[in-house]
Design a protein that fits this description.
The chain is of the alpha/beta class. It contains ten helices and seven strands. Strands 3-2-1-4-5-6-7 form a seven-stranded parallel beta sheet, sandwiched between helices. Helix 6 links the parallel strand 4 and strand 5. Helix 3 packs parallel to helix 4, helix 3 crosses helix 8 and helix 5 packs parallel to helix 6. The longest helix is centred in the N-terminal third of the chain and has 29 residues.
Length: 338
């Protein structure tokens, strides 16, 4: 893995030096516009072809030889919303793999129960009561952890909340709270820990999203808006990190979940509930941790969900809603034709 990283680093250095040479000497020489840019077009086209071919070759190799999952022993993992459901399962399974787990939750008794359970198994775990929607609390506790532990290598931003009602029935303060916990809290977590990751040139940021961040959902407008925003946040920060060679070893993962069997969400009521059922938190946590260990950019649970939604989004609007009404046969859209 180290030799592979060195190869990519040297390629990046050569590419940057060539780009500087190109901007300083070639562009002024050929000026701009017309046939004078033909050599640059030819060179950039050649680079494009090489990149596409090499990417396809690497994809084939990864299918034939799956990547080795990174070892989590000794890593320090911070998990928000760790007191119950998916957060609890993530904390337990990370600890079983030898990671030091830091549990953040607003519910002190539940959070302490998770910490105690991990410690009974001889795992290393620390619990803190915090409201992740409070920027001051996140920054203050984050700075304290970085001083005491010196390294938080994986951050799993899992805390969230959901409330269903027509948008006109939401009180303004309820909308504020949903936006704060499902979107703004992720900003504060990233801002608190990303600078340290950049300084150490390693780290992993994981955001737990929802199918509501991929497709519209009636009676969940604030939640859906926040999850769409979280999707944009993670996509943009992934691109920002990609363009900086200094952050090549800082990974991001967006997790898109369907309904979990935690009791916090309504049970699936669509036509294919037997093929697209509720997922136990324990199973979802295992899939997520496996994806993190493979440095996957996106994880969809179930795996077929995101490709199907992406395919559906390519269709004209009227076709999309007709298919959506067929899928969700129980909702009122069955009586509304386009």
């Amino acid at each position: 893995m180290r030799s592979k990283g060195l190869i990519f680093r040297y390629i990046g250095i050569i590419a940057r030096k060539f780009r500087a040479f190109q901007e300083r000497w070639l562009l002024p020489w050929w000026e701009s516009g017309g046939m004078s840019t033909a050599p640059l077009w030819a060179l950039d086209t050649l680079v494009l072809i090489v990149k596409l071919c090499s990417t396809c070759a690497i994809a084939v190799v990864r299918v034939l030889i799956p990547p080795t999952m990174k070892n989590l022993y000794g890593e320090t993992v911070l998990i928000t919303g760790s007191g119950q459901g998916l957060g609890r399962e993530l904390a337990l399974q990370f600890a079983d793999l030898g990671a030091t787990v830091i549990c953040w939750d607003y519910d002190t008794p539940r959070n302490n129960a998770v910490v105690s359970e991990i410690r009974r198994k001889d795992g290393e775990c620390f619990g803190f009561t915090i409201d992740v929607t409070s920027r001051e609390q996140v920054f203050s506790l984050g700075a304290r952890l970085l001083r005491q532990l010196s390294d938080v290598s994986i951050v799993v931003s899992n805390a969230g909340a959901c409330s269903s009602a027509p948008v006109t029935h939401f009180r303004p303060e309820a909308i504020d709270k949903l936006i704060e916990i499902n979107l703004l809290a992720h900003f504060w977590i990233i801002q608190a820990f990303l600078p340290s990751m950049i300084e150490k040139r390693r780290g992993h940021i994981v955001a737990i999203n929802s199918s509501a961040g991929l497709m519209p959902c009636a009676d969940n407008v604030p939640y859906c808006a926040a999850k769409y925003g979280l999707r944009g946040l993670m996509d943009a920060i992934t691109e920002e990190l990609r363009l900086d060679t200094w952050t090549k070893n800082i990974y991001t993962t967006s997790v898109y979940l369907a309904t979990l069997s935690t009791g916090s969400y309504l049970a699936p009521a669509h036509r294919f509930a037997s093929l697209y059922p509720e997922i136990p938190p324990k199973e979802a946590a295992k899939i997520i941790i496996d994806g993190i260990r493979k440095n996957r950019k996106e994880i969809s649970i179930p795996s077929i969900m995101k490709p199907l939604i992406a395919l559906n989004n390519m269709l004209p609007y009227r076709i999309r809603i007709i298919l959506m009404d067929f899928f969700n046969f129980g909702h009122r859209g069955w009586f509304s034709f386009c």
